[in-house]
């Protein structure tokens, strides 16, 4: 089975209350996970209506952050970004202007440039998404919407119709690249500009 810890260092330490390490199970339950975590956050966070923003974080004008969401220490959220249905931004993360993030975890040191979409995904540490890149989470074009992943040469059904990508630490995603639903990227993978990643056809 796919274990997030093979892609992202110390992931189980980051979320010790949640025992599953299967990525699509986690992204499907982020609202519940965050609703458990937010009440226990310390005084370093300002919490309003289940949106927790660290006092050192910067959120620019026009950003919309829907509950429940957590924005970590020294992170930056650009103007007109849109967070929905459960988003966790770890420390020192940069989210550019006009990005949309849905039901996702973004680990420390990662930069999501501007005008990106990241849906139902788990993004590792020190990852860089150049402008306009997409982590798609749904098969609009297929009659069968169920998402499968390719791991160690085997196709694994997720049982989910909404799952984006698991992106390992240190990956680089080029401008206007598209990660199809169910993409798994091992650590330090490079995706070229304009490239389409479609691991299961």
Automatic annotation (TrEMBL):
Molecular function GO labels: acyltransferase activity; nucleotidyltransferase activity
Keywords associated with the record: Acyltransferase, Transferase
Pfam families: Hexapep (PF00132), Hexapep_2 (PF14602)
Keyword Transferase appears in the UniProt entry: yes
Keyword NADP part of the UniProt annotation: no
Family, as annotated: In the C-terminal section; belongs to the transferase hexapeptide repeat family.
Protein's name in the database: LpxA family transferase
Organism (species): Flavobacterium rivuli WB 3.3-2 = DSM 21788
């Amino acid at each position: 089975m796919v274990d997030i810890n093979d892609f992202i260092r110390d992931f189980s330490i980051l979320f010790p209350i949640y025992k599953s390490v299967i990525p699509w199970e986690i992204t499907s339950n982020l609202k519940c996970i965050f609703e458990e975590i937010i009440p226990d956050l310390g005084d370093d966070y300002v919490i309003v209506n289940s949106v927790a923003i660290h006092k050192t974080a910067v959120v620019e004008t026009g950003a919309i952050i829907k509950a429940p969401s957590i924005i970590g220490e020294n992170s930056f959220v650009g103007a007109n970004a849109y967070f929905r249905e459960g988003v966790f931004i770890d420390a020192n993360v940069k989210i550019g202007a006009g990005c949309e993030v849905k039901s996702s975890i973004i680990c420390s040191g990662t930069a999501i440039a501007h005008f990106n979409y990241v849906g139902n995904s788990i993004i590792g540490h020190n990852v860089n998404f150049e402008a306009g890149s997409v982590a798609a989470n749904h098969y609009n074009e297929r009659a069968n919407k169920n998402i499968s992943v390719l791991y160690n040469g085997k196709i694994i059904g997720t049982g989910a119709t909404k799952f984006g990508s698991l992106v390992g630490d240190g990956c680089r995603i080029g401008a206007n690249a598209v990660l199809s639903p169910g993409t798994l990227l091992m650590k330090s993978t490079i995706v070229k500009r304009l490239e389409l990643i479609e691991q299961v056809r």
